[in-house]
Design a protein that fits this description.
Layout: E1 14-15, E2 19-23, H1 29-36, H2 39-45, H3 56-68, E3 72-79, E4 87-95, E5 100-107, H4 116-132, E6 136-142, H5 146-154, E7 158-169, E8 172-182
The chain binds coenzyme A (COA).
């Protein structure tokens, strides 16, 4: 196994039974604005609510710039049989030297609880370890975020520690959990 990340020249596409993953485009901005302006989703993900759909242009450019800088890869999540995305999933490289990244997923409310987030993670994780060459992936989420915890457990993450909150919610700063998955432990559970 190489000791450096093998960062791709283009965002790779993945085709699964439930979802496919592809590069974000300007076509994804309306769906992004809808989920990003959902107060509950925004509080759970820790992302600020955008003022207008026009904020989608800098949102897209931010992800493209991270890709160019080799500090992150973001995918649009498209349910199989559809052409429109319903969410996004991404890896943010937090240590190039140690080959560690953070996983983030947001799905539009209308599509919660349909296995979409879990399916998207199951496409990204083998790529992240076997091709990109990560050694560890971390995920931080509010302790009240049951869906996030369950999703991460299903794909093999384990509890690392509780952390004082730096994600903001309506209730103010809430405590978080840090979950971790290492490259030799990618089995997950059903
Ligand atoms: C967290 C999130 C990505 C999960 O995606 P999803 O597609 O809804 O998840 P899945 O359908 O794959 O379900 C994963 C597990 O969570 C459970 N789950 C889903 N929504 C739930 C809810 N509201 N309450 C409790 N459990 C829930 C599912 O039942 C499933 O567990 P199970 O197989 O034991 O039944 C999605 O709910 C979301 O985008 N939330 C808002 C943003 C967010 O919290 N992002 C993560 C921040 S780190």
């Amino acid at each position: 196994m190489s000791q450096t990340l093998r960062f791709p020249d283009a965002v790779p596409e993945f085709l699964g039974d439930v979802v496919s993953l592809r590069e974000l485009t300007v076509e994804d901005v309306p769906a992004w604005f809808q989920r990003a302006s959902d107060p509950e989703s925004s509080a759970l993900s820790g992302d600020p609510i955008p003022e207008s759909p026009q904020m989608g242009v800098p949102w897209l450019e931010r992800h493209r710039e991270r890709f160019r800088q080799q500090t992150g890869i973001q995918w649009a999540i498209v349910p199989t049989g559809s052409v429109e995305s319903v969410g996004s999933i991404g890896l943010t490289i937090t240590s190039k030297a140690e080959r560690i990244a953070e996983l983030g997923i947001v799905i539009g409310r209308a599509h919660w609880g349909q296995g979409i987030g879990t399916s998207a993670a199951r496409l990204v994780l083998p790529y992240a370890f076997n091709t990109l060459g990560l050694t560890e992936i971390r995920a931080e989420f509010l302790q009240s975020n049951v869906a996030s915890r369950r999703l991460l457990e299903k794909v093999g993450f384990h509890f690392q520690r509780a952390m004082p909150g730096d994600l903001q919610s309506d209730a103010g700063s809430q405590d978080c959990y840090l979950y971790v998955l290492q490259s030799q432990n990618t089995g997950g559970s059903p």
